[in-house]
Structure formats: C-alpha cells, structure tokens
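INFO batch 0412 | record 1 of 1 | parsing
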Amino acid sequence: MKKISILLVVICFLILGLAGCGGTGTAKSEKASFHASNPYEGDLSGVTLDIGAAGIQNAQGVLQAAGLDDTPYTVHFHNLRGGNLVLEAMAAGQLDAGCGSQIPSIFASLSNNDGNFKIVAIRKGSTLDQELITGPKSKASIHTVADLKGKKVAYVKSTTAQYFLFKMLEEAGLSWNDIEALPMSTSDGLSAVLTGDVDAYAGYGNSIIQAKNKGAVTLASAENILSGDYYWYAAPAVLADSKKKAALIDYLERINEADEWIRQHPKEWAAFYDKETNQKADEYQKQFEEQEAQRKGRIAPLDEKTIQSEQDIINSFIKMGLLKQPVEAADLFDGSLTEAISRFHVYE
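INFO prediction complete | emitting tokens
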C-alpha cells in the first residue's frame, strides 16, 4: 500500500506539472497584472475613449493578449490600417486618440484646425525590415546605392520608405532626381522588384521579408536612419477633459505593461496575432523576437531627439518637393502627458 501511495503522489505531481501545478496557473494562462503609476481617484466608468491605430500590435491587440483590456472606462477600438486614416478620423472628430508613424502627422497638420490632434507620447519600436532592396534580376549589376543612378526605384509614397530612400541617396552623393522614382503600394513594389520591372524597391515589413525569401537582397538598411518611433496622437478636447485625459494615461500605461507581457510570452502573442492577421505564427514569432532584441517596444515620453527627428523628415520632404511649405515640428507636440508617462516602468 505504501508503494501504491507513493506512486499515486508521483503521478499526481506529474499531472499537476503538466497542467501547470494545479490552480496556480502557468505562463500560458497567466495574464499581466496592472498597477497604475498615475492612479485616478475619481470614477471613470462614464468615460468612453474612441481609439484608432494602424495595426493591433500597437494598441488594443496587446491589451487583449495580455488580459489588460478590462479597463474601468469603455474603449471603442478602430483598426484603420494606416496612420493617415487615423488622423483623418481625428480631424473629423471621430477619434479621441490614435497611433501611427512619424509621417502622417506632418501632412495632417496642414489641414483645417491643424488636424485636430497633438502628439503626446512615443511608442518606441524596432527599425528592422525597413530596407532598400534589389531584385533577383538586378542584383548582379547593382551593388551599391550609387549604382542606382538613372535606374527605376519603387518606393511607398509619403511613408518612412520615401524618407529613408532620400537619405540613402543623399549619403551616396545622389539626389532624388538622379533616379526614376516610382511610387507604388507595398504589394506592387514587391511584385515589380521580383519581376525586374524596377531595379530596386524601398519598403518595409512583410514585403521586404517576402522579397528576400524570393531572391532579393539588401542594398541598404534603414536600421540606423529611422528612429523607430511611432506616435500617439490625442485630440485637444481630450487633453482639456480631466477624466478622458486620465483614461488615456491609464490606457497608454496598460500598453506599456502589455508590451512586456508579450515579450515574456512570445509564443502566445504570436498565436494571438496569427488569428487576427493570418500571418503564420512561427514566422511572426521569429520576426517579433528579432525586433524586440533590437529595440524593446514601450510607451515613452516626448523628448527633444524625437522632435529633431520629425524636423529632419520635414526638411527632407521639402527638399523633395513633397511639402510645399515649411512646418515647425515642435508645434505638432504637446507635453501634457509627459510627466505622467515618465512614471511608467522602463523594462531593460
């Protein structure tokens, strides 16, 4: 009987081990805990935030995956697939806050009412997979950016791709007019560089990964050209409303904490992201881990370096003729949340 009892105990421990030690939970079932560094003493239950973002990975998606979407206020999330669409919705008064890249805010600031937004926070991220590539048919004859003189180069217009292509040409001693610059979507740019319809392509994300998997090679990387910054925009009315402002600060801190949770649970995050985007989970997990190894995703306060980076983009676009009038980058920013965001935990 004693041997049977010991055997039962061993089996029980094995079962509990496989199940994650019973009711204590495992890494697969644990969700992130949240303790606000800027607690609000009032009641936020009557507050509703309409949030928009260019991709779930920068906002609501990470909250849902980490289990931090149980907010004390209501969130209506809108996945708008582009920072320009986020800012168009903000200009129309349809969103309280949103996230997008550095580029759309420049053009949005020229619209009526200055676009009805201010940049209030930074979402730090990776600069990987943003490259100038040459295709299978042209890589034998094109080895440097300088070799692109007189060549056809596709790029994604009014994006970081156009900016880093300009900077790469400048570094190689070429001007924008020294190439045949052809604006294209990411899918068209991918197709054109693979078929040889263009000699090179400046793009980002999956289009670059897919192209390289099919024989394209890197001509130059934007890894050290781009800041990796995404922006969080807020409507001025939100910043003037104490409750909405408190809710937005809470929401941004939840994203900051969720970013750490997905770093600790990359497989679970990849599986969640796969269901939302149909990208293969194992491929995305590898991409995600490489990006996080380069630069950890987090919410950060505004700083002078960010404003300088934005001004450099503006100046570059003016040189290209993309902007017809000067824009002061500093005018796009508002430091109302900087002190609160400075209290967010920075994960090393």
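INFO post-check: The longest strand covers residues 118-124.
INFO record closed
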